Amino acid sequence: MSIIEMNKNTKFLNLREKDPFLERERQRYENPLPSREWVIDILEQEGVPLKMGALAQKLSISNDEYEFFERRIKAMARDGQVLINRRGAVCVADKLALVKCRIEAHRDGFGFAVPLTPIGEGDFVLYERQMRGLMHGDIVTVRPGGVDRRGRREGQVLDIVERAQKQVVGRYYIERGVAILDPEDQRLTQSIILEPASLTEMNPQSGQVVVAEIVSYPDAHRPAVAKLIEVLGDYADSGMEIEIAVRKHQLPYIFSEACMQAAENIPDHVQAKDWDEDRVDLRDLPLVTIDGETARDFDDAVYAEKIGRNYRLVVAIADVSHYVRPDDAIDKDAQERATSVYFPRRVIPMLPERLSNGICSLNPDVERLCMVCDMVVTYAGNIKEYKFYPAVMRSKARLTYTQVWEWLEKGGDYPHKQQIETLYKLFKILQKKRHQRGAVEFESLETQMIFDDNGKIERIVPVVRNDAHKLIEECMLAANVCAAEFLLKNKHTALFRNHLGPTPEKLATLREQLGLLGLHLGGGDNPSPKDYAKLAEQFSSRPDSELLQVMMLRSMQQAVYEPDNKGHFGLAYEAYTHFTSPIRRYPDLTVHRAIKAVLKHKKYTPKSWQALGVHTSFCERRADDASRDVENWLKTYYMRDKVGEVFGGRISGMANFGIFVTLDDIHIEGMVHISDLGEDYFNFRPEIMAIEGERSGVRFGMGDRVVVKVARADLDTSKIDLTLISGGEKSNKRGKKPSDKAAKSAKGNHSHNHAAAKDKTKGKGKSSEVKHGGKSAAKAKHRGKKKH
């Protein structure tokens, strides 16, 4: 029966006329359809799911309208308002208590459904059979179930709302006469069949890296099918690791034509029309930039002077918001990227180079527009007063951390002496205040790869953070705190940088682990940052300090961008936001817009602050993962020439399958499998952070010295295998076997990190948070500034 024939048996527009939102829809559309609210109301009145045709009949949808009506229902399904079940019937989502989630697949076949809007109840575990037909990143609707024997929430995936994987990068092979793509992303656990027609045109060679576009997605019985669209080349080609990471993590790396055209239309110098009555002239103020040697974009400049017992601190930040307006072509690309991504030897910028390295970069001796946080800091380190305003500046020097620190160490006469010494005195005051506040200090070793002219790693060196780095960091923190306070005081919504402390479950796990190791965290059920800081002091000189630091980090929650202020636990701030890097972080750009709106007694309102927070937080993690992949691959490639060589090292991690050893001088980590530790049965003792032989009593503990030989450097997995030459100590006293409860606690329950050992196999096992300091860790590799 056609829709028209069905309508002959109904009173025309009967239910549609009763739509309480009909007038609103008429203002939006010339021929309005039933409103979303009314569709949901009708479904609730029915009390049972309705087929699309039956629902259309009830709402008197004509043949001409049916296609548009179907689009509206599908849009409602994408937004989680309704569910179209497997029988094609439309259900009210609220009736089913559905949760919209993103799939996080694990390379071992299982996965987790992570709610897009966290409500504190945790993720849903999905077993291997439930993962069939799903792919990493898919957006799904889940019906909550019970709890499994390990205490994890179970759920049933009812519908795939949106597929995340459109294109897949991987290796091309022929298996039993069938062309397949073996994905680089190990979370895509199933091989993908390639269409024969697409192979003929491009003629890839077996083992080459290719990109394919998915034509049909997998289901419970069939694999995905894709057509070949690009042959990238051989796996070991120079720069291939970045090409793979960009595509594997779906990083936007090509600016749209509209964006590039808009960038070309932006002038390369400040023009007279850029001045308005509110813009302050700071061209004579001796502002300077202090960055790393290889930095090309300078988004912050600083100035300090003594005023009686207090100090004036001026932090000037590039005024990107003057050139990038909401929803223009550049803004759309910037929002999609959300952050710049830093790789060794290559950067994927958030903004076109004409802006990031040109008109928005605070280069020396040229006029630049900026947004200023002008503060008065007391001798005790308190910010007495501050103000924000747009300005024009002219940087007096482009200085480097190394240069400034050498001047401060050596003393004597040097350029900008008074300015730098005043900044340094102020830094000491702010640093003392940081310690009093109880901010948690995490100092982890960062490394930098030095390349030769042929693009090959020459050596890997530690990045030493000196007081010049920390000086800029403290200035940036002060400006960020003022920005958060300013927006809260003026009741303007913005993206705050929230970092919460431990959940009760994570806190209980941490306390039990610490107790077994003879350590104590104060604060009872609600420890403060000061309690964490005191704990860090307890183990700072222990050989297992790095692992203990990771345990502390894992007990806290990830830092995220959210429109509701919840404070920053790690930095011990009641409110914190990102103001200081609008060239490379989209949240900072929105903070600038919000501050300008307040100054002009207006409001800045994107489509959804909540959605923007989720998106920018996701993009930040995606960029971190991509950078880590490239760094691990490059280190593995570097170690291929070292196979057979012997190194001293220190045990930096362990799991039930072996020990991780960080090699001396080159700061690269490899693994000795538990079966290679000696002629004995070795067992992982998590409660004492050791691996111990059953009969010999030989024990390997965190921080112990060992001598190892490089056995293998596997580029496919970015893993380095080591064999033990010597090491391990005979324990004087045989330890007790851990209780089941202690062992379970030490291994840790499922959290957003999902598995501790998984992180260790990917690198140093460091959490992606807490991100402290003035700037991102990714950029720190270029500029020496820390992430917060």
Tally of contiguous helical segments: 24
Structural class: alpha+beta
For the largest beta-sheet, the strand count, sense and barrel status come to:
5 strands, mixed, barrel
Strand arrangement within the widest β-sheet reads 4-5-6-8-7
Overall, the morphology is: globular
**CA gyration radius, whole angstroms:** 29 Å
The quaternary state of the protein chains shown equals single chain
Mean pLDDT: 85
Instruction: Please report the total strand number as a whole number.
Output: 35
Ends apart, CA distance between termini? 62 Å
EC number: 3.1.13.1
Domain S1 motif: 644-725
Protein name: Ribonuclease R
Catalytic activity: Exonucleolytic cleavage in the 3'- to 5'-direction to yield nucleoside 5'-phosphates
Topology:
Layout: H1 3-8, H2 14-17, H3 22-28, H4 36-46, E1 50-51, H5 52-58, H6 63-78, E2 82-84, E3 89-92, E4 99-105, E5 111-115, E6 124-126, H7 128-131, E7 139-147, E8 153-162, E9 167-175, E10 178-183, E11 192-194, H8 196-202, E12 209-216, E13 225-233, H9 240-248, H10 257-264, E14 280-282, E15 288-291, E16 300-307, E17 310-318, H11 320-323, H12 329-337, E18 341-343, E19 346-348, H13 353-359, E20 367-377, E21 383-394, E22 397-400, H14 401-410, H15 417-437, E23 446-451, E24 457-463, H16 467-489, E25 496-498, H17 504-516, H18 529-539, H19 545-555, E26 560-562, H20 586-599, H21 609-639, E27 646-655, E28 658-663, E29 669-673, E30 682-685, E31 690-693, E32 698-701, E33 705-714, E34 719-727, E35 729-730, H22 740-747, H23 756-762, H24 777-783
Parallel strand pairs: 6-8, 11-13, 14-21, 15-22, 29-34
Antiparallel strand pairs: 1-3, 2-3, 4-5, 4-7, 5-6, 7-8, 9-10, 9-12, 10-11, 12-13, 16-17, 17-20, 18-19, 20-21, 23-24, 25-26, 27-28, 27-33, 28-29, 30-31, 31-32, 32-35, 33-34
Helix pairs in contact: 9-21, 10-12, 15-16, 17-19
Biased composition (Basic and acidic residues): 756-772
Domain S1 motif: 644-725
Catalytic activity: Exonucleolytic cleavage in the 3'- to 5'-direction to yield nucleoside 5'-phosphates
